[in-house]
Inverse folding.
């Protein structure tokens, strides 16, 4: 099986962190079933290693993550497939939130759709000058349903309304201002190294318990809303408007509702 997420344990990193690297640049690190499974495995391996105090989630290529792998959306009932993929994403985001180790997102590329949810799920997020962010779902007839579980607890309400509705692109400085990321930096490596050094001063028990305090409300949101949002997302995904929106995107033309 191709390695789409590389795992580097603390014995092989200079700072003693565990490194999970999204490594599928040919499709912009899209969340294929295989990539998601490998990311789950990496999170489990890191959590089971007593020498791991912190996990760094990075990427290869100029895109951190572009969201779902639409090439997998074929075969079987479209509504059932869409619901299954939504649940798969919800489960992945929850795994990051529930992981007993702090997770740092190290981003220096484009972030879209499910990638935004990954950033929101991480405890700390650092973005470099090549980073761009956008929530363009409304432009193709859907909504950022599942990723709202990790984004809305982080974003200011005014910023969420603006970027959910306009779909406009913004950079790292704005992402820091609205709460999506922790730090906008010029040197990703140096910033992550400083954070890892600080986190490694914490005890495993202290870090896990402290993280649990910050994630309790987010997990309550998953318990309350994940299944409802998965079904709502699936209904939108197979709607006439979504089909028109995705086709227009692929054909590089305005969708019907844009005149």
């Amino acid at each position: 099986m191709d390695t789409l997420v590389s795992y580097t344990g603390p014995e092989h990193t200079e700072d003693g962190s565990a490194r999970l690297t999204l490594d599928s640049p040919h499709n912009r690190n899209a969340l294929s079933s295989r990539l998601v499974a490998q990311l789950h495995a990496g999170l489990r391996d890191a959590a089971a290693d007593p020498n791991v105090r912190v996990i760094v989630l990075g990427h290869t290529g100029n895109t951190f993550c572009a969201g779902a792998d639409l090439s997998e959306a074929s075969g079987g009932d479209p509504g059932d497939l869409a619901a299954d993929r939504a649940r798969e994403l919800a489960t992945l985001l929850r795994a990051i939130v529930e992981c007993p180790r702090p997770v740092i997102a190290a981003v220096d590329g484009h972030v879209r759709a499910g990638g935004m949810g990954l950033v929101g799920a991480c405890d700390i997020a650092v973005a470099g000058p090549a980073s761009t962010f956008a929530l363009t779902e409304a432009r193709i007839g859907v909504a950022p349903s599942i990723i709202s579980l990790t984004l809305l607890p982080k974003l200011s309400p005014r910023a969420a309304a603006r970027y959910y509705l306009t779909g406009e692109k913004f950079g790292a400085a704005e992402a820091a201002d609205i709460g999506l990321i922790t730090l906008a930096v010029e040197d990703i490596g140096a910033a992550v190294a400083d954070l890892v050094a600080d986190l490694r001063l914490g005890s495993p028990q202290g870090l896990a318990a402290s993280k649990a305090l910050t994630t309790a409300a987010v997990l309550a949101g998953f318990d309350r809303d994940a299944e409802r949002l998965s079904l709502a997302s699936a209904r939108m995904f197979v709607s006439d408007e979504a089909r028109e929106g995705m086709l227009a995107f692929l054909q590089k033309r305005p969708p019907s509702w844009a005149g």
